[in-house]
Amino acid sequence: MERLRKHIEEITTISDDEFEYIKTFFALKRVRKNQYLIHEGDEVKYEYLVLSGIYKVFYVDEQGKECIVQFAQKNWWMSDYGAFFKQKQATMFIDCMAEGEVLFSTLDAREKLSAELHKMEHFLELNSPMAMWPYSKD
User: Fold this and answer.
1) pLDDT at site 129
2) 88: left (phi > 0), else alpha (psi -120 to 50), else beta?
3) Domain enclosing residue 21, as ranges
């Protein structure tokens, strides 16, 4: 979890008490090579912060061609954000290309953190791939 704190503190300072609270909203997951975090059609419950490994975020077009949206690595956030924020079924896949670890959190957790800690609202806004990459398959 210290990597999460370091990542947050690249944007804003937080106290020990604030971090103790923030980390309750995240869980750690070890991911094997070729393991999928999201499949097309899944309910998208989580967004992920990459701690290690390499991940491919992609969709398959009407002709069956794989269209890569993102390669995610350390300190990158990833999800099928169109589905995550709208609470719809996934239109994308996330495939682990090299064994790693991610922290994951829910939309409810994101909203609660943003509402309760202005610092986290600012941090999450600046680190949202939706802000940097307004991709939507819809």
Assistant:
1) 60
2) beta
3) 2-130
